[in-house]
Amino acid sequence: MKLVHVILLLLCFYLSFCKHTSTSDASQEDLVDKKCLAKKYTHLSCSKVFCQPWQKCVDGTCVCKLPYQCPRNGTVVCSTNGKSYPTYCQQKSFECLHPEAKFLKNGMCTGEGKFSVSLNYGNTDAEGIVKVKFVDQDEKMFICESSWGITQANVACLDRGFPQGALEARGEFHLPADLHINSTECVHVRCRGLETSLSECTFTREAVSNEGLAGVVCYRPTTVSPASDSFQCVNGKPIDQKKVCDGVNDCGDQSDELCCKGCQGQAFRCKSGVCIPPWHRCDGEVDCITGDDEVHCGGVLEYLSADMDAERKRIKSFSPKLTCGVRNSMPVRRKRVVGGKPAIVGQFPWQVAIKEDERITCGGIYIGGCWVLTAAHCVRIGKIHRYQIWTSLVDWIRPNSEILVRYVNKIIIHENYDGKTYKNDIALIELKRSPNQKECVLSKSVPACVPWSPYLFQPGERCIVSGWGREKDNQKVYSLQWGEVNLINNCSKFYPGRYFEKEMECAGTDDGSIDACKGDSGGPLVCQDANNVTYIWGVVSWGENCGKPEFPGVYTKVANYFDWIGQRVGRSLISQHNI
Fold it and tell me: What is the C-alpha to C-alpha distance for residues 380 and 122, in angstroms, rounded to an integer?
């Protein structure tokens, strides 16, 4: 079957089951979130995208890993610096630090030549018909037009030294009259879009009658004056606003696809506001940080996968995996710790109770190792000897047999905690290890995952709050209660002058029937992603008028403190992704 027909059939198959938020005739005003655009997100913004295996996420940005931090499993590759590297990841990590040392080919370096890209028959060195020369061949080859688009064009221009990629993936170029090209003399190419060289893309030979040849015009700031209504990419390149939020990385830095309220055409919209191509849906690799592009896929196989693309996927599979956020038993969904329902043992295995002397004063969240997350206002360093941490507790009047009691070794309160405004209301508790144990063994506890991005969950999504707090009539509660609440967009309207959007999250119900209350402080607000993995989205912090409408509970937004937590407990303990 001809390649173009295969691609069309595959695309149609994907679209038959893809669910997406799209629009065919929408203006940029309707599609783009301007508040998000102001943050200038790109393919290096790990609040919006996954970092590559040779990168790690630090302070919201993908930065280079050192080569030895890559997985050791993989295939040997050759670099343009003449050195062989044990894995593709290690080579790309070295290139990340030294951009001149690009990927050359799969396999050991043997000194047999270089991969090269040239532009021919154009008026300047920034345009022309594209030719490539492979390492093991002497002749240069044209690229077939049918497999060529802005994705490939951006990579080709980057390869040629134009950092902002391509202006156009097509151009009017006139071949010499004596040059005769037949369909067997061009090759097809497929790129993902973030490669630094066409050598990382996949080339195939497939004869197609009447095949045209690929050409490109690379972008230079002096090439053209931007139109008044053009979209300005973060890298400075202007593109037609009609190309925004269509799932195609026209900018080259992905900035045109990361702040979308809707998607154009058949693009798939991640819940995090990112538009991806429909063929990335159900391709066996999670592209949305929210995981929704690989849900309900029905066992679809990926065809025509690139060699180095497949190698990159394989390397990702070797990365360490954390066993957080997955409980042994799922909770029964009830419509309705004000207005909550009693929990059962094991239902919230990350929930802990903080006991001071003879009473439970706050909740906490187990995040792995010997560490518990709680609210800063719940603990005092001077009282460290008076605290106990109870795990697996359900009813503190009739204690269950699964309970474990641990004492506190260290308390870390956020250095910028403000007791008047509850800003930065977050703290860490390190548990004491049992004698002769290197780590804390909490057999019945499961850590909740720590979120790294504020875009994992959106306003309107339903999450769960749990704790031993009082009911709305100030009545004491002795059993662990839980209830479902909705995340609410910016609560400044409820608490003017006291709500800080970056550091705080709020949640509740329209009628106030479910809410956190006194005694729930420090406990968890957890949300589940598309794969049923539970994240600690908020720490119960403050609020007014428990259980009354228009007074939602306010929580410390944990995603804002991912780096703060990682620096104190060890990054490897909490880095589920982007490690």
Answer: 71
Please answer whether residues 406 and 412 qualify as being in contact, where contact means their C-beta atoms are separated by less than 8 angstroms: no
Residue 137: CB partners within 8 Å, gap ≥ 6? none
DSSP assignment of 111-175 equals S----EEEEES-SSTTEEEEEEE-TT-SS-EEEBGGG--HHHHHHHHHHTT-TT-EEES------
Based on the residue annotation, tell me whether 385 is a catalytic residue of this protein.
no
Specify whether 425 is catalytic.
yes
Please answer whether residues 352 and 391 qualify as being in contact, where contact means their C-beta atoms are separated by less than 8 angstroms.
yes
DSSP 7-60: HHHHHHHHHTT----EESS--HHHHB-HHHHTT---TTBTTTSPPPTTEEEETT
List 43, 188, 377, 577, catalytic entry: 377
For residue 16, the number of C-alpha atoms closer than 13 Å in the C-beta half-sphere is 8
Report the alpha-carbon distance of residue 411 to residue 428 in Å, rounded.
Answer: 6
Residue 153: partners with Cβ closer than 8 Å, 6 or more residues away: 165, 166, 168, 169, 214, 216
**Pairing verdict, β 387-391 and 351-356:** antiparallel
Query: pLDDT by residue for the chain (579 residues), tens digit each?
Result: 343 333 333 333 333 334 444 444 445 567 899 999 999 999 999 999 999 999 999 889 999 999 998 888 888 999 999 999 999 999 999 999 999 999 999 989 987 788 999 999 988 999 999 999 998 888 888 999 988 999 999 999 999 999 999 999 987 787 777 666 654 578 999 999 999 999 999 998 876 666 788 999 999 987 667 777 889 999 999 999 999 999 999 999 999 999 999 999 999 999 999 999 999 999 888 999 999 999 888 654 343 234 677 888 888 877 767 778 776 544 433 333 444 566 777 788 999 999 998 888 899 999 999 999 999 999 999 999 999 999 888 887 777 778 888 999 999 999 999 999 999 999 999 999 888 777 887 878 889 999 999 999 999 999 999 887 655 555 566 788 888 899 998 889 889 999 999 999 999 877 655 555 554 789 999 999 988 899 999 999 998 766 566 788 999 999 999 999 999 999 888 886 655
Point out the catalytic residue in the list 466, 521, 541, 575: 521
Whether this model's pTM surpasses 0.70: yes
Residue whose token pair is 């919201």: 60
Q: Is 289 strand, coil or helix?
A: coil
Which is catalytic among the residues 250, 287, 293, 425? 425
Query: Shortest CA distance to 309 belongs to which of 151, 525, 162?
Result: 151
> Exposed, middle or buried by CB within 10 Å (0-12, 13-18, 19+), for 227?
exposed
Torsion angles phi and psi, residue 537, rounded to 5? -85, -30
Residue ranges in 222-368 assigned as alpha helix (H): 307-317
CA torsion 348→330→273→567, rounded to 10°? 30
